Amino acid sequence: MPAIVLLGAQWGDEGKGKVTDLLGERVDYVVRYSGGNNAGHTVITPDGQKYALHLMPSGALSPSAMIVIGNGVVVDPKVLLGEIDGLAERGVDVSRLRISGDAHLIMPHHRALDRVVERYLGSSRIGTTGRGIGPAYGDKVARMGIRLQDLLDPGILRKKLELALREKNQILFKVYNRKAIDVEATVEEYLAYAERLRPYIAETRVMLWDALDRGETVLLEGAQATMLDMDHGTYPFVTSSNPTAGGACVGAGIPPTAITKVIAVSKAYTTRVGSGPFPTELFDDNGQHLRKVGHEYGTTTGRERRCGWFDAVVARYACRLNGVTDLVVTKLDVLTGLPKVPICVGYEINGKRYDDMPMTQTDFHHAKPVYEELDGWWEDITKARTEDELPENARRYVARIEELCGTRVSVVGVGPGREENVLYHPLLP
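== Adenylosuccinate synthetase ==
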């Protein structure tokens, strides 16, 4: 079977890691195609072990799938090696990892600039994780980035770093009054990383082309989500890459004609981390309920997630933009015990009704949700494995999401565990 894209339909943290892990034993390759260690996937195995993955594809926990970090990812080598060592200590085989030589590196000056610029923005800050992702992508686009393959050539590494720091140190020292980055110390540090990463660096494009030619299944795993896409999200409160389906082709180096299925993951409600507009955000007891029961704290940052009701305008936008074939709705169990479960079915902006995403940032910022209220349920649904085992009101809620999104719901998550799902339609034949 050819390529499958798995992505988030909201602002991230939808549970993509769980779905990747669910599919991991039935695919041959799991490829991370965008983002950096600003992303976090939490996976809970059948024996109750919890893994927080940041750069490693979630397929790392599969016993057999090859795991690939594509050219579209920005890599902090210290973080990646720490994650490799942590997994190895817990008995996870990491020898199946391959990293594109064209993936760009996060350097010390990227992290330094990310932190200081965000601080100086004050109330206008984007809400980055401060891990250097944005500056690394900025240098990539400016054609002054340093790639993983440059670690294999000390002369090239030093030359590129000297060129980059000629500008970056001026900014750090003269504009922000911060200490300049030392070239030699950085080269020494990164060449040490090179020795350990060398066995993993590969021409991953050819590897994936050959796999597709053999009819093997390639799962393309996005980080962040649709509404954080650089081009199609709530700019400027977005990530610095393209986590949408189109970005999968660019970030992994595979042709769009190879993609036969796009799986989008959405929570049964909505969350967001960081700044930016969020029409359905709740500031009352319902919001606290969602945060507490849903354990809504960032995998990477530990920050409290902003919580709100399900936004069908956002979800429908994501389904149409990505060409979604299957929708996975996670954390339906979090809504248990609420007497009413509203769904945002449109926006009101300056007295006018919108059923689709408004064109401008200003309009979206002022959007007021138009709600449709459905009756809640009190029954424990964590043991449900078929649609018939869900309470009638829970089934109605899922059916309404499916109707509003215009895409079939294939899986509903009823708990955090790998097996805690209700299967409507198989994701793989």
